[in-house]
Amino acid sequence: MVHDYGDVCQSITELAVEMQAPISTDDFRTLNACLDDAIAIAVTEFARRRDQGVSDDLGIRLTAAFNAAETRRQSGIDDAAVGGSERLAFFAHELRNLLHVAGLAFDVLKTGNVGVGGSTGAVLDRSLAGANNLISRTLAEVRITKDIQNPETFLAAEFVQEIERTASLTAAAARVTLNVSPVGPDIAITADRQILTAVVTNLLQNACKFTRPGTAVTLRVSAREDRVLIEVQDECGGLPSGDPDELFRPFEQRGSNRTGLGLGLAFSRWGVEANHGRIYARSLHGDGCVFTIDLPRAQIPASV
What we know:
single chain, alpha+beta, seven-stranded mixed beta sheet
């Protein structure tokens, strides 16, 4: 279907030449924009159906393995032998899907029928960003499961500034506004920076995915005497009914957008707990929801 849209453009152009009906620059631009949107919709729908198929098939086979691994982890038992091949299968499936969609979009762009700055280019951008996030998240998960951590003490303001650069691109692609509240200069955290970055990035991507079109996602940091709270708030309309804690179970998906496998929040919980914190969600009924990372507060590094 994607390639057929390119043929439509060629056929219209040839028909106009045959009938001696000149196409103005504005008309041709409009035609290309319509075809660009149609191609982007087709590629996106293909990705959605493929993701859903992988989620239904792979999710059934992996849920038991992940739950077993989680039970062993909570019991203090090394889960390296449990679910290792299943996790690799998940990574390979999802990375393949993201790269396949990126390849489809790139093939269309190579024809020259649509511009890289249009809807199809945005599909390519989202797919590549998704692949990058998947790899970063997987590497962070490996660090958690293998207990390979490099805790360091850093300022929350600098950390949020780094996160904002990537999150702003995600928000722009989703056509939502990203609001980042000022962070106090005296707030410090001791954590594995790579893992915590992956966790907060995942929460922001989820927020951009589920918030209503044209709304905002907010990232803010506050502190008490001994705790630091990192909050991500969206305007999704509120969480579905049920216990919010169940959202952090592997493969739990309650929203209508069911792309992906529902592992992001489970990973976020593992990552926060590995850094001696906790994560929880609350619903702002009719408005949105807030995901909160609660971490111990550290002393400001002497080098700062």
